[in-house]
Structures are given as structure tokens and as C-alpha cells.
Design brief:
Elements (H helix, E strand, L loop, with lengths): L3 E8 L7 H17 L4 E3 L17 H19 L5 E10 L2 E10 L2 E7 L5 E2 L2 E2 L11 E6 L2 E7 L3 E4 L2 E7 L9 H7 L4 E6 L7 H15 L3 E6 L15 E5 L2 E5 L8 E8 H11 L12 E4 L27 H25 L5 E4 L4 H17 L6 E5 L7 H13 L3 E4 L3 H11 L8 H22 L2 E4 L3 H6 L12 E2 L6 H13 L4 H12 L19 H5 L2 H14 L3 H11 L6 H17 L1 H4 L28 H8 L2
Parallel strand pairs: 1-2, 2-3, 10-17, 11-12, 12-13, 18-19, 18-21, 19-20, 21-22
Antiparallel strand pairs: 1-16, 3-4, 4-5, 6-7, 8-9, 10-11, 13-14, 14-15
């Protein structure tokens, strides 16, 4: 459903060499995974026998016990064909023993994946018992089932998802087998492991899993042996983790003495969208591997009755932790400053002109400009900050604008636009009492004209303040605030602007500036183009007109970053905002988002230059190229059908 595929990584109970006990434990864990709705469950390496059997692996009694245990598991699977199991077991072929991931489904042994890289160092002497499966491609008999394909170069397709299995050490080598497997089309990689614990190893493993799933644009489920394995020389902590495209979706606590499992809904569509987006950087089916297809009922429940087993962040542009926000904010600001500094050096410009409204966007642009001038060793007096009060300007924003400009040490100018706009209305015959789009846009264009002309006066350039969210919605006056010589906020979404300004406030030495920034953060978002109310308060609130920016940024992220359909974006939004917005509210603003996004492309087709700071950007020269006359009919029809 919507590209999600439920996966479990289980750590069952184990007794060394007690295959009957282990089979029962595997079945118990499989039952739990199945009850939780998992389609695939991966168990640890050699979980049928236990990994630490050592020389017993060459003992016929143990091998017969493993065979009986596998038969029991296969029999269970015949009654539960909706789940695919990967269990670790020894497999013999032509007088050679292999450490295998055995895939079982619907009463059949579907395939066996032999371990490719056999460790033979320190505490691991696996070459004493196992041969590498590199290059092996043959049919074997497992649990009495003949002609089971055994190869390290094959895929299983189950419920439309292509799956590959590798084992423990395979992940730790310079080029893991899963790298080639994903190039051959694998979307989910499972790893059956028996990795003992030593200091620092777990953190390193998580780095490997994050990097491998990110490089291969895949989901990766990892299960490793735990309590019950021999502690003669090693101790096993019981690890189960599920990663997707570089992010950990689920993990269990280590050092437990009872069975447990990690379970998550991995987003196969998300991974495939990234592969498509990567294009030739990733490649497309460079290897043609055999695919073992399993017939399975792929029908899904109605998404209204499904609880998604993954966190959906309602603010995808904003890091979730304070530490991450601080690091991300500094990095973004450095990107903005570096871009502006390079543009000023390239144009031999030592003067900037910027309109300051007392709102978030112009505040961020001014703060970036001040920091850039400090970096370049220029006097901040070269920043010509201009406040241009009009018909809707309130005392709150006006005073904040003046305070900010003064305390930052920039050149301060105040140029009111009311008389000039009244004259313009007289010239074009517009009724001052008619507060329509002409009334609003005339003010925006008058301000831009002032900024451009002052830039000519001082030999400088106009610094744009508009943000990514406004560009997505077309919430800018064409050839008004839409235009500048360089737009430092062009790829910063509205939900992130607030956090960046907050970062500046925390790091400000001047107490007066800090208090001003805090008040700006708390001010309602508004273009202030309509007169204030009788009490002098803002009457024109942007989010009342176009919708909450939290929703629009959410829609924008999943539409542009992954190319998701409206129905999937809606499904995600319902999960992310279930405590904040009703379903009808989400539908209403989603439809407005798609309509505005398509209708306003012409404004984005002629954007000024500006620095890219994240994975979502609307620059017509790079990240987003779309015809200005593209139809939104398909997207709106899907919204109507929700």
C-alpha cells in the first residue's frame, strides 16, 4: 500500500546445538512477526543450530538435527504463506559446507544464499567449517526439497519487492555483495548476522548500515545473534535494526535475555524514486540476475485502517533534535553567506540594498548580509537597509524593523510608499477603497522600484528576501518582491526560516537585538498590504489566505523530494498531522497547494540566482524544470478522489 512494505528483524531465543528448541523459537518469532503484519522476517546467522557450534558443524548428528528443524519450519510456512522467512542454517553440497541464508515461504524452500566472505581472523575462524559461496550457482536439496537454487547472485521477488540476502561479514568488506545486488534490482537487503560485541563496534555497524542503505537507495534489515549463544570466548548482544536510504527506522534494545524484534514499514517507492532521480549515477539493472518469484496475495487493507509503523515527521525540513537544529542552522547560514560573498566578490560590489519589513524573511536576509560583510571585512554601513511603511504596516513590525537595522549597525533609511502609491492609483484610475490584487501588488512593486533605484544610486545590488515556500505557492508579486539581484533565502522553506532566525537570536551578543528577534519570531506572518484593524493589529494573515505553511512545506517536500502522488502525500499527512489538522483541512489545503504550484510556475521560470541549501530547490537552472503551462488536472483529480 502506497509503496510500503512491512519488514521484521527478529532475534529469537537460541540454545547451542539444540535444533528442535531453535526451530520452535524461530516459529514463535515468525508468528509474532506475522501477527504484526510483517511480509518478511529475517533471523540471525545460523539461528537453526546457533552460530557458536564450532567443530560440531562437521558432526552428522548436528546436521541431521538442522535438517529436521528446517523441515519443521517449512511445514509451518505451508500454513502461513503470507510471510517470507530468512533463517540461517548449514547447507551441504558436493562434500562442501556453506553458511546460508535459507528463504522459506508457503511450504517451500525458495532459495539459499551462501555467505561470500568467510572471516578467518582473531576470534573468527570460519574457514575451518565453511567455504565461500562466491561464484556458486547450483541446485541443492534442503529439508528434503530438491532443486533449491543456491547462489549469491540471485534475487527473490515477493509481493512485488525484490529481495537479496547477505550474511554478516559480507557487509563489512569494501564492496559488499548487496552493492551488486541492488544494481541488479534488489530493493530490500536482509542480513543474517552473528556479530559479537566489543567496544565501539555497534556504533561502527550503524554507520555501515546507514551508508550501505544510502549508497544503494534501499531498505536494509539486519538481525544478529543474542543471548543463548555460547559465551566461551565471545558475547553476543542481540542486534536488530531496519534502515532505509540512510535512516534508521527501527532498532531494539541490546543485551536482552528474551526474544525481540525490530519492525517497520519500509518505503520501497521512496527508494525507487531516489534511484530514478540519481539517474546514471546509480545505474539501471547493470547486472541481469535470476529472480525467483513467489506467488503471493498482494492485496492490502484500506489505508484508513492501517497504522503506519514508522515515524512521519510533520516538519521534514526541520531537524528533530535541538543539537541537530543547531548544527543544521549554522551549516545553512554558512551556505547562504558563502554564496552571497562569492557574488559580491564576482561583481566587485561593496553595497547591498535590502528592504526590511520587520517580518521573518527580510530579517533572515539582513542577518545573513551582516554576517557576510563581517566575513569579507566590509563595513556594515555598506548594507543599505530600507524600511518602506505602507497602508498595512503596523507599529509592531515598523518598530522591529527600525530596531533591527539600528542595532546591527547598517545604514538605515525610511522611505514611505503611501503617497507614491496614491499617485499611481490616481494615474491608473484605481479606487483606493478597493482592496484587491491591484491594491496589494502596486505596493509591492513600488517597494521593489525603490530598492532597485537606490541600488543604482549606491552602486550596489538588491538582496532578495523571498523564501522557498513562497516560491512554491507563487506568493510573491511578479516583478515586485519576486525580483532581486540575488535571493539568499530562495531555497529555505518557511518552516525553517523561523529556526534560523532563532539561531541568530541565541548567538547574538546584543541583548536589544536578541529581544527584537524573539518578537519577530512571534509575529504573525503577513505581507501587510491591507490596513490594520482599529487596534493597530495585523488583519492580513498569510496562513489564513493560503493555508498553514507547515502543511504546504510538508506537501512540497514529498512532491519534489520523492515525486509522491497526492494520495500518498495525503496518507502521510494524515499520519503526521493527526493531532493538529482534520482530514478535511488537509484535503482543502492540499488542493490549493497543487493548484497554486502549477499555476505559479511562470514566476519560478525567471527567478534570480540564489544558493541551494537543501535537497529541495526550485531553481529553474537546476533542480526544478517545468513548463509554465503544464496542467494540474491529474493531480487535482486525484485530490478530489481522496
Amino acid at each position: 500500500m502506497h509503496g510500503y512494505f512491512r519488514v521484521a528483524a527478529a532475534v529469537p531465543a537460541v540454545n547451542v546445538a539444540d535444533c528442535g528448541f531453535n526451530a520452535d523459537s524461530i516459529i514463535e518469532s515468525a508468528n509474532r512477526a506475522m501477527q504484526a503484519g510483517a511480509c518478511v522476517v529475517v533471523m540471525p546467522e545460523m539461528c537453526v543450530t546457533a552460530y557458536t557450534c564450532a567443530d560440531l558443524f562437521h558432526n552428522s548428528t548436528l546436521l541431521h538435527g538442522a535438517d529436521s528443524a528446517l523441515r519443521k519450519i517449512v511445514k509451518w510456512s505451508a500454513d502461513n504463506p503470507q510471510i517470507l522467512l530468512f533463517v540461517g542454517a548449514p547447507v551441504s553440497s558436493r562434500n562442501t559446507m556453506y553458511n546460508c541464508a535459507v528463504a522459506i515461504c508457503g511450504g517451500e524452500v525458495v532459495a539459499a544464499f551462501p555467505k561470500t566472505y568467510i572471516p578467518n581472523y582473531n576470534e573468527f575462524y570460519e574457514k575451518r567449517w565453511w567455504q565461500s559461496g562466491e561464484g556458486i550457482d547450483e541446485c541443492v536439496t534442503i529439508a528434503g526439497i530438491e532443486d533449491v537454487p543456491m547462489s549469491s547472485r540471485q534475487l527473490i521477488e515477493f509481493r512485488g519487492v525484490k529481495i537479496f540476502a547477505e550474511i554478516c561479514e559480507d557487509l563489512w568488506v569494501p564492496i559488499p555483495p548487496s552493492t551488486e545486488a541492488t544494481l541488479a534490482g534488489a530493493q530490500l537487503v536482509v542480513n543474517l548476522s552473528a556479530s559479537d560485541d566489543v567496544i565501539g563496534k555497534y556504533d561502527y555497524l550503524k554507520t555501515l548500515l546507514a551508508q550501505q542503505s544510502a549508497r544503494c537507495y534501499c531498505a536494509y534489515a539486519y538481525s544478529s545473534a543474542g543471548f543463548g549463544e555460547s559465551s566461551t570466548d565471545l558475547v553476543f548482544d542481540g542486534k536488530a535494526l531496519i534502515y532505509e536510504n540512510g535512516h534508521c527506522l527501527s532498532e531494539i534494545p541490546r543485551w536482552q535475555r528474551k526474544p525481540d524484534m525490530a519492525i517497520a514499514d519500509v518505503d520501497i517507492e521512496l527508494c525507487m524514486r531516489d534511484r530514478i532521480h540519481a539517474g546514471t549515477s546509480f545505474g539501471s539493472s547493470v547486472h541481469q540476475w535470476p529472480i525467483r518469484r513467489i506467488n503471493a496475495d498482494s492485496e492490502c487493507a484500506d489505508d484508513k485502517n492501517v497504522t503506519l509503523l514508522r515515524n512521519v515527521d510533520p516538519r521534514p525540513f526541520v531537524p528533530s533534535s535541538e543539537v541537530d537544529i543547531d548544527k543544521r542552522a549554522e551549516e545553512i547560514i554558512n551556505i547562504q553567506c558563502a554564496g552571497l560573498a562569492r557574488r559580491m566578490k564576482a561583481t566587485h560590489c561593496r553595497n547591498l540594498v535590502i528592504g526590511i519589513s520587520g517580518g521573518l524573511d527580510s530579517t533572515l536576509a539582513l542577518l545573513v548580509a551582516a554576517r557576510t560583510f563581517d566575513m569579507l571585512g566590509y563595513s556594515r554601513e555598506g548594507i543599505h537597509s530600507i524600511t518602506m511603511p505602507g497602508f498595512g504596516t503596523t507599529d509592531r513590525t515598523y518598530n522591529n524593523a527600525l530596531t533591527l537595522m539600528r542595532t546591527l549597525g547598517t545604514s538605515v533609511r525610511e522611505i514611505g510608499i503611501a503617497e507614491a502609491v496614491r499617485q499611481h492609483f490616481s494615474d491608473i484610475g484605481h479606487d483606493m477603497e478597493l482592496h484587491d490584487v491591484t491594491y496589494e501588488n502596486s505596493q509591492a512593486r513600488e517597494r521593489t522600484q525603490i530598492l532597485m533605484d537606490v541600488a543604482n544610486q549606491v552602486g550596489g545590488m538588491v538582496l532578495g528576501t523571498g523564501d522557498l515556500s513562497e516560491l512554491a505557492l507563487g506568493w510573491a508579486t511578479y516583478n515586485g518582491d519576486h525580483m532581486s539581484m540575488y535571493g539568499v533565502n530562495a531555497s529555505v522553506p518557511k518552516t525553517l526560516v523561523r529556526y534560523l532566525v532563532r539561531w541568530f537570536s541565541i548567538n547574538m551578543a546584543c541583548e536589544e537585538t536578541r529581544h527584537c528577534l524573539v518578537d519577530i519570531i512571534d509575529t504573525p506572518i503577513s505581507p501587510e498590504l491591507i490596513p490594520a484593524d482599529a487596534s493597530g493589529n495585523i488583519t492580513q494573515k498569510t496562513e489564513d489566505l493560503v493555508g498553514p505553511y507547515e502543511l504546504h512545506d510538508f506537501f512540497l517536500y514529498y512532491m519534489l523530494r520523492y515525486g509522491f502522488s497526492p494520495s500518498k502525500v495525503y496518507f502521510l499527512a494524515r499520519n503526521a498531522f493527526k493531532q493538529e489538522f482534520s482530514e478535511d483541512t488537509i484535503k482543502k489545503w492540499m488542493k490549493i497547494f497543487y493548484r497554486r504550484f502549477f499555476n505559479q510556475q511562470f514566476k519560478r521560470s525567471c527567478l534570480p540566482d540564489g544558493p541551494k541549501v537543501g535537497s529541495v530547490c526550485l531553481s529553474p537552472r537546476g533542480d526544478w524544470r517545468m513548463p509554465s503551462d503544464a496542467s494540474s488536472a491529474l493531480w487535482l483529480a486525484e485530490c478530489d478522489a481522496l
